[in-house]
Amino acid sequence: MSGEAFNWHEFLARWQQEWVPRAGEDGGQIVVPPSRPGADEAAIAAAEERLGRRLPPSYREFLAVSDGWHVDETAGVYQLGGAADIGWFKDPHDMSSLYEENLGDDPREADVLLAGMWRRALRLETDSDMSHALLDPGDSDQDGEWALYVYKGWSGELPDRYPSFRAYMEAMYRRFHSGRAERDDFVNATTRVLDAHVEEARLLALRGRWEQALPLLEEALSFGRPRSAVLLNQLRHLLAPRSSRSYGDLVADPRYLPEILPLEAMTPASGEWRLGGDDHWVGMMTARGAARESVEAILSTMRDGTYCYAPASPWGLAVAEARESARWGATDAAWQLLRHALPLWEAPGPSLIAPIGLLADPVLGPLITPERGREILATPRSGQTGPVPEPVPDLDPPGLTWLAEPVATRQAFDGYRCVWVEGIAPDRLPALIGEEDAQLSPPTDPRKASWRAPQAHEREGVELWEDRAVVAVGRTAETWAFAFDGHSHHHLSNLFLSPAAAASSSSHAVVVWCDPRLSSPGGRPAAFHLSVAEQGVEIYAFTVRGTEIDRSGAIPQALDPARLFRPEDTELDCELRVVQALHTELGLSLPRFALTQGRLPTFTTRSWTRAPRSGEGFAYLSFVRHRP
After folding, report:
1. pLDDT reported for residue 409
2. Which of 211, 328, 375, 563 has its CA 20 to 30 Å from the CA of residue 422?
3. How confident is the model at residue 76 (pLDDT cuts 50, 70, 90)?
4. Coil, helix or strand for 416?
């Protein structure tokens, strides 16, 4: 409703014509009409002479059309006075001193303006609830407009700032509409236009033209129009997939519940819900109309990681296939399946414009980055047509060099170890190298799994010298199954026992352990281990500790540690050289995205250390935090 040209006559006449009283606190109705006849030029000039200042343009123009206005805020300012009513505020409560005390040594310009506003402001309101509408001549723009501050004395909050009187009145007009949007009898030219914009935005969004839909929905939401919030939230959710959104009463509609309720359950399932626990959240969902049994079932599966986004139709088949790929780490392949099938997604009703249920899936949800969220929004779907967007680039680099390369969003792993087994299904790994009765977990964040696992001293029947690793499980593009520990708090000790032979009982296995140098002075040197086994027998191995190299078997020239670990090179140079050789010579790789941002099954391995022999010792440290 804003623009360079502004007609106060049209604006106020429309507001007056649309006027519908709101319900009063006593159950009655407030019937005060909003407008008064405009003040003539002489009355405005007299007010300016009394005040000693020319009034800002938009307020002056307003007075010429309506000499005062019933704003009708639900809390705060109710009535704006006319030219004869306004006067300098003069800071009767000494707010300036309070705000000046909190400026600090290097205050922002906005804070300085606010601190000085109280003594120089012009008061406009004549009826309010401990609130003030204050025009500040010290906070003006190039057009001579004064900022307007609304201070609600009962709230304890900072004043709301509007860049001009006109901006304030436009905001109050939108608030007037929002407060009546749910009334069946509140229908007028403005609501009809805005509702048409909502429908236009819905169709634009389904055609992939979300950037055109966005401002239409933002404007409609500022007026409180039905459906604008849920449609806009879907766009915003896919633009920021890790954020949280509320979808109101859509959980009560069986058409939308499979997409919406799991999204709503993400916050309590993650443990971030603090308002009264699960019972309070379940109560909120049932109050919105969802069945209690459905709410509790969804929350349970979201919490234990077993929830699966499973829509019907051909889109659902693609989702299931994509999940199977992503389940073992092939996240780029999974995304390509989803991208190809996006046009097949069908909206279950007019309030859904995108497959946002994907975000709640523990395996597929992490795949939806902001860039991929925009690609979803830009792809025509649900029977609509339009241009197809350029695919976003894949996220997984080839090989292993990413393990040693710090990037803007994370540091290189402090240390890592991995077992690769060629040509087997990943779910066979627990039987080969897992502890007794080891089972794959549901999809888990690999970055947190090992730290959440109980330590040796916390487990019955586990010796303190044992090093049982919690490993993430998957499959590489070259069909090696892998078990990866990128967050180990153990070190490559003299008691190390490679799991390569056990892993290779019917195949070919490779074990790598990179253990970086201790940062403290005089700490242990960096260490690197490689062992390769076939059919249950280790065929070659080496361990490098600083400048010392232990080796066994016929090591291929390309993997000769004397060539890979040169004394004159840095630790990082050596690590990069060896992981490049492992990729080139053995075809090893690891999926970066799945291991750093995704979710993979995990299990606990057998110990990577053997029992100390006679005369050998070991040290075990544990730290316990005591609450004061």
Report:
1. 41
2. 563
3. confident
4. strand
SS3 407: strand
Please provide the size of the chain in residues. 628
The separation between CA 594 and the C-alpha centre of its own chain, rounded to angstroms, equals: 17
Q: Using one digit for the tens of pLDDT, what is the confidence trace for 321-342?
A: 999 999 999 999 999 999 999 9
Q: Where are the alpha helices (DSSP H) in 380-523?
A: 429-433, 446-452, 500-503
Assess contact for 483 and 605: CB atoms under 8 A: yes
Per-residue pLDDT at 192 exceeds 50: yes
Neighbours of 224 (CB within 10 A): 20
- Pick the closest to residue 236 from 135, 323, 120, 359 (CA basis): 359
Burial environment of residue 536 by CB neighbours within 10 A (0 to 12, 13 to 18, 19 or more): middle
- On whether the CB atoms of residues 498 and 531 are closer than 8 A, the answer is yes
Angle at 387 between CA 381 and CA 388, to 5 degrees: 70
What does the DSSP assignment read for 255-276?
TTHHHHHHHHHHHHHTT---SS
Q: Which two tokens stand for residue 215?
A: 């401002």
Element (H, E) at 419: strand 416-422
Q: In degrees, to the nearest 5, what angle opens at C-alpha 475 toward C-alphas 471 and 481? A: 70
User: Comparing C-alpha atoms, which of 451, 529, 539, 449 is closest to residue 493?
Assistant: 529
> How far from each other are the two terminal CA atoms of the chain, in whole angstroms?
58
Between CA 238 and CA 235 the distance in angstroms is: 5
CA angle at residue 378 from 372 to 379, to 5 degrees? 95
Measured distance CA(377)–CA(374) in Å, rounded: 5
